[in-house]
């Protein structure tokens, strides 16, 4: 997100793409932080990652296998305690079973899954510059992973400029703050509503990791954002209704120039959210 102070009669100008806005007061801000770029085609790594997430969303997370020579042995925890779908297969003298931990119908990475929007407030922080929505989303994720990076540390690590951050910079940031779990993250371009739902369910409800979403607001807006062309990074930390409703943490909440009424956290339908990311994508 990029913030620029403007005079009353000045027209807003974006880095990388045009912003359409009426004249505003001197204290107002213009927001963009994704360099104004479409994400383009998916990489082969992103396609493979999406295939994995679709499988996890449908079947559950493969959590363990148990084996014993000559027969089916007791499954190791947490398989033994999970409601599992098992498929036997022989390997040499041992027999194995693959088990899956089911995806819950609602889940929040923070606090109570019954009220993820309220719980997620504990993670929120406001971006310190207008073009730091990417670094701030990553910094918010770092609180969940207990690596606790500051916005400035993330911005320096991923080399954010005044033009904002691109998808690979944010992906690299998520890999960094997630530590040993970071290798899972890929930048997945233009997910459909069905694909985004699978990503949300698998990452949040299955792997228990947050998802960063790059949105592009043009004609319609979410979370009381102003009527401008806005490129923005937000972070998903929970869902309800089987993944049809997503809980978002918004780093822009409270910023001057039209974001004063934006909530720190809010719920949005996965279909609406996918429309905002249809020329951008998600890091999940």
From TrEMBL:
Keywords per UniProt: Signal
Signal peptide: 1-28
Cited InterPro entries: Peptidase_C39-like
Pfam families documented for this protein: Peptidase_C39_2
Stored Gene3D superfamilies: Cysteine proteinases
Domain Peptidase C39-like: 124-252
Entry keyword Nucleotidyltransferase: no
The protein's name in its UniProt record: Peptidase C39-like protein
